[in-house]
Amino acid sequence: MNQPHSQRLPRWLKRRVPKGNANHFTAKLLGQLHLQTVCDHARCPNRMECYARKTATFLVLGDVCTRRCAFCALTKGKTRRPDPTEPDRVAEAARRLGLRHVVVTMVTRDDLRDGGAGHVVRTVEAIRRVCGQVSVEVLTSDFAGDRDALDRVIDAGPEVFNHNSETVPRLYRTVRGRKADYRGMLGMFRRIRQRSPRLRTKSGLMLGLGETRQELLDTLADLLDAGCRLLTLGQYLRPSLDQMPVVRYLPPEEFDELGAMARRMGFRQVASGPFVRSSYHAGEMVGRGEG
Questions:
Q1: Beta carbons of 227 and 201 less than 8 angstroms apart
Q2: How far apart are the C-alpha atoms of 99 and 127, rounded to whole Å?
Q3: DSSP strand E in the chain: where?
């Protein structure tokens, strides 16, 4: 899995633009409510498809991240104080979009005492209050290893707790930065399983960063041992020349093979494909998955 990549995208990474105006409806609504989405800031290749389906992954706590991950297009720099009205605006957007599964992610906020956990909790509570019987998925940072912050989010009772491992141990700090802690990531899943055994746990990896197949399988085994049961595998695509380059583009059939292997290893639900991202078709995965 370690071949130099071509500058030209392979044919399977070319996408058709969705027809119709549903994507404009979603984009306009998000603009009216002054909300951020990871779809925009991470330059997700599925953005127009998801917007056309009237769904989005809400990005809370601003659009500036305190970490400098080598793969990520999010802005780095001076952060702003969290907006106390944001949780209600997220809930209102979810209501107007008619979402039945709401995904909330966050920028890493090492500058905040609780890493932003309280704001995430208030967002989950607002969604429950406004939207009623919906399922909620949180995709959080590692809260810099703060167990109390993690516990607060667990106790808010989301249906899915997602934290992306992103890559294998050998590449972990190269990809995620010097503050990243692979063992700490596994410890998060162990803590979630210990504190709330029925909470669904999920993680995602980007492939094509230079990992070997054995390294990938070893990482999947680590995730399973830590209690993670839902998995996404997708192709890393370089957002711009400012981020680390792609080492290899994996063909769709290899993603199929890896997905089948992950299921045989014990993951309850697996989404594996070039365009798969951590929240891509997340509602369908949780609808089929078990904790």
A1: yes
A2: 10
A3: 36-37, 57-60, 64-65, 75-76, 101-106, 135-139, 160-162, 200-207, 230-235, 269-272
Task: Look up the pTM and report it.
Answer: 0.91
42 contacts: CB under 8 Å, gap ≥ 6: 72, 73, 74, 239
pLDDT digits (tens, 9 = 90+) for 219-246: 999 999 999 999 999 999 988 888 899 9
Q: Are 61 and 107 in contact (CB under 8 A)?
A: yes
Q: Decide if 164 contacts 202 (C-beta within 8 A).
A: no
Rounded Cα distance between 99 and 130, Å, is 12
Q: How many CB atoms are closer than 10 A to CB 125? A: 15
Query: Would you give the end-to-end CA distance of the chain in angstroms?
Result: 31
CATH match of 15-288 with 3.40.630.30: no
Is the Cβ–Cβ distance between 187 and 201 less than 8 Å? no
Tokens in use for 15? 């996408």
**Per-residue pLDDT tens digits for 147-163:** 999 999 999 999 999 99
Alpha carbons within 13 A on the beta-carbon side of 61? 28
